[in-house]
Amino acid sequence: MALVGCACFAVPAEAGLTAQQKRRACFPKGSRTVLVSHDVRAYTIDARSGDTDLRACLFSTGRSRVLATSDDILSVARAWALAGRFVAWEYRYTPGCRGQCPPSAVPLQTLSVTDVRSGLTRVANTSAARAGVTTRGSLVWIRSDGASGASLLVLDARGQRTLDSGDLDKRFLRVFGTFVLWRKGGQNHWADLAAARGTAAARSACRGGTRQLFRDRAVRVYRQGSVRTFACLFATGRRSRLLDGATGFRRAGRYLAYFARKPRIVATQSLDLHAGKVMWAAGLALEDQPPPAVRRLALRASDGKYGAVVGSGAATQVIRARGLGGYDELDSGAGIAPGSLSATSSQLRWRNGGAARSAPLGPRDTTPAPRAQSCTFTTPSDFFTSTTPQLFDGEVSVILANSQDENPEWSFCRFRTGRRFELPFLSHQFVRVGDYLLSRSPDGCNINPPVPVKLESRSVVDGRVVASDSLNTPFDVCPRTQTVLRGSDGAFAYIVDPLRGQPLQVVAVRRTGRQVLDPGPGVEFGSLSLSGSTLTWRNGGAERTATL
What are phi and psi of 293, to 5 degrees? Predict the structure, then answer.
């Protein structure tokens, strides 16, 4: 399998090289040129796995980025066009299982544009008869619509949209700087994709959508279709995708705060509308209970940091967002008045039982914005939330799992560094503690020949697997597992229910290997917990412990 849209594994040139030496670094031995321009070279080279890497190298830095890896049989990668530091490329994958494929093994065809300097990649799940890219990174392509003709589409910071459709010449598409030229009905047509920078044109770009959710003098929030939600900034026409089901909007300066309610969690975020980046985030959920309601948000205009009143009755709380995950509880009690919450340049203020209360918002954030754009391979609705034994910690912006139905690949990305790493095919049941991520794969049963169920713990810093274990099961058996993870070194333990009348077991997995702590019978599924390095579970009603 190839990692689609990665563009994140860079081959660096050595520091202190001259411009000529950096350019020479873009021509590694054994490479084959696909496209070359004044700024970028796209080439293929044999990978260590025996497959073929499609890479792009920026002459000014001597750095190469892997765009995709293909075997030229089931998967094929191709570079379409170069413009400035941007490269347009496509990837196609066809499952080799033919008529016996699992539900998730679907054909895949994507069209992408990558900024070779930063690694930012935008992806469209589509096919293209012709494709190009502008010097500002707008991806344009012609898509065949069958008997109805063809469509000309564009993907950039404002999202994906249609420029024209109908009787288009599928073989004619030209891009000059930011200008796009195409032919319809024998007549040439053109558009300047940089024109939306003007105020009038930018406001026009913010029109559309099936339902307007929020609007003020600076921003318009609307829903496209039944689920997808966007915020559009009038000054630039920039469109940012929000979490599905977004509501409760509050804007201050260039920042927009909102929340979205999911079946098991309420996610809150503040977004930099100019950069399209999530600046602060917190998730709220209670173990085995519906998530609390968010009753009011208040945010600071200087950096988007915010507070919220959540819950009801005696469970009402005032919280303050903490970085890109988690929150601080500032106050609680039935006397909190949600409408009294406000934010100044330095404090959150509210009233509890008629008495005025306040808490510092903390120093203004002067650090560079998180490299969230390097992790935007999927939409925000594809985020999963890391967990602790008692509470969802809300770090929805730290780890990103690609769970698009059209894409059978999985990866995770750490927003702090913008680095993305590949996960095993069909990974699921994610648990993150500290700098380690635990996952199970594959997500499915009745796979023939049988595929071992694998549990893996890996570092979110460098993607390295630190501990793993496999469960060999028959073709028609899907064992249940309950896992706990230690955040200091990535060691983990689990209870496995092999089914078919076999006893449940407790197993510890460390970097040095696996150890069966309790072979059963009598182990109670769901009773495993971890405190520090002490494991606790129940067997026949009696509590047992061991050191992980």
Answer: -80, 145
The Cβ of residue 472 has, within 10 Å, a number of other Cβ atoms equal to 10
32-36 and 40-46 beta bridge pairing: antiparallel
Specify which residues 43 forms β-bridges with. 33, 55
Average pLDDT over residues 529-548: 87
What are the tokens at 386?
């890391």
**The amino acid at 116:** V
First and final C-alpha spacing in the chain = 34
- Burial group, residue 415, by CB count within 10 angstroms (0-12, 13-18, 19+): buried
**Residue 367: which pLDDT band, with cuts at 50, 70 and 90?**
very low
Distance CA 183, CA 170 (A): 8
Q: Write the pLDDT tens digit of every residue in 127-170.
A: 888 999 998 889 999 998 888 788 999 988 777 888 888 888 88
Confidence of residue 429 (pLDDT cuts 50, 70, 90): confident
218 or 41, which is more confident:
41
Structure token pair of residue 544: 């047992």
Burial 164-181 (b: 16+ CB within 10 A, else e): bbeebbbeebebeebebe
Report d(CA 493, CA 543) in Å as an integer: 16
Distances (CA, A) of 456 to 114, 459, 536: 30, 10, 21
How far is 510 from 494, CA to CA, in rounded Å?
12
Class of residue 47 by CB neighbours under 10 A (exposed 0-12, middle 13-18, buried 19+) = middle
- Between CA 534 and CA 386, with CA 524 as vertex, the angle to 5 degrees is 55
The stretch 340-359 carries a mean pLDDT of: 88
pTM: 0.41
**Residues whose CB falls within 8 Å of the CB of residue 523, separated by 6 or more in sequence, listed in order:** 495, 503, 504, 505, 506, 537, 538, 539
Long-range contacts of 495-502 (CB under 8 A, 24+ apart): 495/523, 495/525, 495/526, 495/527, 495/528, 495/537, 496/471, 497/525, 498/471, 498/473, 500/474
Please state, in angstroms and rounded to a whole number, the distance separating the CA atoms of residues 545 and 548: 10
CB-count exposure of residue 125 (10 Å: 0-12, 13-18, 19+): middle
Question: Residue 271, Cα to own-chain centre: how many angstroms?
Answer: 15
Distance (Å) of CA 430 to CA 21, 238, 392, 424: 44, 33, 12, 12
